[in-house]
Amino acid sequence: MATTLARTLKQTKPFASREEEVILALQHTAARVLEPWARLLKTRFQLTVSQYNVLRILRGARPTRLACREISDRMVARDPDVTRLVDRLADRGLVDRVRDRGDRRVVEVGITDAGLAMLQKLDADVDRFPRAVIGHIGPRRLGQLATLLQDVLSDLGTFPPDGARGGR
Amino acid sequence: MATTLARTLKQTKPFASREEEVILALQHTAARVLEPWARLLKTRFQLTVSQYNVLRILRGARPTRLACREISDRMVARDPDVTRLVDRLADRGLVDRVRDRGDRRVVEVGITDAGLAMLQKLDADVDRFPRAVIGHIGPRRLGQLATLLQDVLSDLGTFPPDGARGGR
DNA sequence: TGACAATAGTCGTTTAAACGACTATTGTTG
DNA sequence: CAACAATAGTCGTTTAAACGACTATTGTCA
């Protein structure tokens, strides 16, 4: 029944709806899972999760450079100010920027060798971390979870509802 | 299949492991789901999600007051500085604080009538929001998701693995 | 009892996130 | 081509989060 998480949170009342319970659980789980990962990135390389994700995105796009807008589109948590985020990475020499010749409005961002080297040092952890944290539940439920999350993500509703439906 | 989210993220390479895929999906889904909710809280009441959650916690505990530490324990995302968080709520008259007589170290925090009134104005949205955003997937998968998230949460691994306990 | 450790919370300071106004460049159209 | 809209990114400013050192109180035990 719905009371399991409720008890974890020491709430007296159960949830108003199953949907609310799931959203709470989603927040809770994501936060708890991300916590040790954020700590690792911070202690080892003074990186925030967003900064790390941007580096991953840029490595994944190589050798193509990406415009700030393109980076923003691929981020997990949209950042309204990619400029500053990239600024900090550029100050540390992890990425570099070049004005596009064709369209001089856009700035193409690419990961540097220093950035690649830093990511490489993290790759071993990136490999071990997920298994250590959520490996317990086993491959079967892992697969189910992947599918379900995908379902939710691909058909997110809007709020407040504006008549339009489905993912964009 | 593992490539679906990969395509969403426009990554060229698939994930190193199923676990990594799930963690990414978890982040992604939680962020996307929380986005509109955070916006609503901000625009309507200048509240952050953490602040709202604390108010919910305090309402749920009524008529018992909670120590800062107890609040921290029940929060979804642990905040290392509950004092400041409560400060801002107290400045706006949404909560109040009282030194415990028995143990004069602790400060008991309670929600005020103004805080309750604000929560009440949000209750209708709290009720509609979850359904609007993730209602599409239907009760069956909703139940599965609740169970799976609960499983993950109740058996989270540690990272880096701490040789002191359990594993080694 | 007195020294010391543990606990609860506060506060100064650094850092990053959020919001909006702003510049520069390109696209569109009468 | 001039005027205007749309797009890409930058930057100033407000706000909150993160980290650590610090005070005050209570618990422990030789």
Set down the secondary structure blueprint:
2 copies of one chain form a homodimer.
Chain A: H1 3-8, H2 18-45, H3 49-61, E1 66-67, H4 68-74, H5 82-91, E2 95-99, E3 107-111, H6 113-134, H7 138-154
Antiparallel strand pairs in A: 1-3, 2-3
The structure holds a DNA duplex (30 and 30 nucleotides).
Task: Describe, in plain words, how this protein is organized in 3D.
- The structure is a homodimer of 168-residue chains.
- Chain A has 168 residues and is mainly α.
- The first copy, chain A, is built from 7 helices and 3 strands.
- Chain A has helices at residues 3-8, 18-45, 49-61, 68-74, 82-91, 113-134, 138-154; strands at residues 66-67, 95-99, 107-111.
- Chain A has a 3-stranded antiparallel sheet with strand order 1-3-2.
- The longest helix of chain A has 28 residues, at 18-45.
- Chain A is globular, with a radius of gyration of 19 Å.
- Chain A starts with a helix and ends in a 14-residue tail after the last helix.
- Chains A and B meet through α1, α2, α3, α6 and α7 of A and α1, α2, α3, α6 and α7 of B.
- Chain A binds a DNA duplex (30 and 30 nucleotides) through α5.
What is the helix/strand order of chain A?
HHHEHHEEHH
Average pLDDT over all residues of chain A = 83
Q: Give the class of chain A from helix and strand content and strand pairing.
A: mainly alpha
Largest β sheet strand count, sense and barrel closure of chain A: 3 strands, antiparallel
Largest interface, and how many residues on either side?
Answer: A-B, 72 and 72 residues
**Quaternary structure:** homodimer
Could you give the count of β-strands of chain A? 3
